[in-house]
Amino acid sequence: MAELESFAVNQAMWDERAPAHAASPDYKVERYVEDPTFIGDVVAFDRPRLGDIRGLRGIHLQCHIATDTVSLSRLGAEMVGLDFSPASIEEARRWTARSGDQVELVEASVYDAVEALQGRRFDLVFTGIGALIWLPSIARWAEVVADLLEPGGRLFLREGHPVLNTLADRPDELLAIEHPYFEQPEPTVWDEPGTYVETEVELQHTESHEWNRGFGEIITALLDRGLEITALEEHQSIPWVALPGQMEADPDHPGEWRLIDRPERLPLSYTLQARKPA
Question: What is the pTM of this model?
Answer without folding.
Answer: 0.94
